[in-house]
Design goal:
By secondary structure, the protein is of the alpha/beta class. Helices cover 27% and strands 24% of the residues. It contains 11 helices and 15 strands. It has helices at 37-43, 61-64, 67-76, 90-101, 158-163, 168-175, 190-193, 214-218, 236-242, 247-257, 275-282, and strands at 2-5, 19-24, 27-33, 51-55, 83-87, 110-114, 121-125, 129-135, 143-149, 180-181, 187-188, 202-205, 224-228, 261-265, 288-290. A hairpin with a 2-residue loop joins β2 (19-24) and β3. The longest helix is centred in the first third of the chain and has 12 residues, at 90-101. The structure holds zinc ion. Residues 8-9, 18, 60, 62-63, 208, 266 line the site of zinc ion (ZN).
Amino acid sequence: MTILGCGAALPLPGRNPTAQVVNVHEKQFLLDCGEGTQIALRHARVRMMRIDHIAISHLHGDHYLGLPGLISTFNLLGRTRALHVYGPPKLQEVLALHQEVGEGRLDFPLHFHPTQTEKRAVLFEDKSVVLESFPVRHRIPTTGFLLREKPKEPGVKREWVRDHDLVPSEILALKRGEDVVRPNGEAIPFSKACHPVPDARSYAFAADTKYWTAVAEFVQGVDVLYHEATFDDGMKARAEKTYHTTASQAAKVARDAGVGQLVIGHVSARYDSPSLHLDQARAIFPNVVAASDGQVIPVQAHL
Ligand SMILES: [Zn+2]
């Protein structure tokens, strides 16, 4: 996961508004697209034409105003492959208006998929990954997103195929995780005949939200959770009023969800650094880092 923008509503040098890109087996998922995302993608050397999925959490400007520009650039660069955009229904109108007033025509198919904020939903799925949305609590309808890698099919070791003359039906059984027992009683144990399968990983982005205990259920057990911590604990009342979260509230969500690592971001422009937030969060959930623009955060299985 690469942080393209870790800032809150007010863009600052080195603190772009929200955007991040997650690389899952060379499939790039862009989560939110604040102003400056295009340039941040170039700084991060992400192959932006490989972004086929863009998910927008909500329609506050600091989370989507980079999208019309990015779509325009895709067109300018001669994109032909389809682009899938997931977001609140009104985003489709916003994008259509940009096309209409510029009398432009996209040379690539843009498929819009409206999100809904009542319950969790699968937005995209293929053989290696699932993209889900889950509701959060902000001033306007907002969703977080969860990317879950699917478990890889185990590979059968070549020497076992050769030395034991495994037949296709036996290989398929092993790939399903089954032990094989032959008619003559010979056992081919899955654990010995197959390569170990790496644990599937998961990443959740909780967007902008007030402290809401249900978020911990939606992101239960993920390996890395990005949660906003707009305010420090001294500004709890303001966080509540503006539908944002404090540092220790974000840490509580991480703790209650049993995540591997917490990344806090969206720190208000009133703070020069996130050090106070980090101290407050760490007291509740030790494995926490503060996001910074350009930072690459590896997602590793933790359970
Ligand atoms: Zn925001």
